[in-house]
Amino acid sequence: MSQTALNLVAISIFLMTLSVLLGPLINLSPTIPALATFTILGIATLDSFSLQGKGASIFLDWIASFSPEHRDRIIHHEAGHFLVAHLLGIPVTGYTLSAWEAWKQGQPGQGGVTFDDAELAAQLARGKIGAQMLDRYCTLWMAGIAAETLVFNNAEGGGDDKSKLAEVLKIVGFSESAYQQKQRFHALQAKTLLEENWSSYEALVQAMRERASVTDCQSAIST
């Protein structure tokens, strides 16, 4: 069972316990928390046996999607990745804006922008990566966080991006202290690229908001 599913089980137990303690005080029908708990446990079970560990993530992402700011953050975050990839010559192969879309396309995690990273994978498999290749991808991975920070003054997403960066830097022999320095440096690099191409970024955000194709998104950048 995934960690997210385990978290849902813990939440359901907490809700049931809370309803037993507070239900009589607020005249809460025991049916309501029972149905809520049953639903959450059902999702956790489905997550483990049918959705390859993504059911809980899809459920939580669906709840979060009711927030307009959450949806807007995702679009701006992923547009940051898309634009920086385009500017650095890294081919974009697709994008998703929710865990549900990602699952339907067979993508891992919460989804996002996907790239043709075969050359990167081949170099990592050999345990050696060129400095230019490393810099390009490190800047790409930090671009979502940079975009969110520029638009919202902070970043709520980007945990997976930081993990990718740390994993690759570890493979090529960087220390933990050097990783922190690289993270800050490439976040600044991404921020600079976005600021220098801000009109293209805004056009791309609008295109992605309308779920335009990759080709149409690239056209919006170039316009």
UniProtKB/TrEMBL annotation:
Alphabetic keyword roster:
Hydrolase, Membrane, Protease, Transmembrane, Transmembrane helix
Q: Name the residues that span the membrane.
A: 7-26
InterPro entries xref list: Peptidase_M41-like
GO BP annotations listed: proteolysis
Annotated GO MF terms: ATP binding; ATP-dependent peptidase activity; metalloendopeptidase activity
Q: What is this protein called?
A: ATP-dependent Zn protease
Listed PANTHER family: ATP-DEPENDENT ZINC METALLOPROTEASE-RELATED
Q: Which domain of life is it from?
A: Bacteria
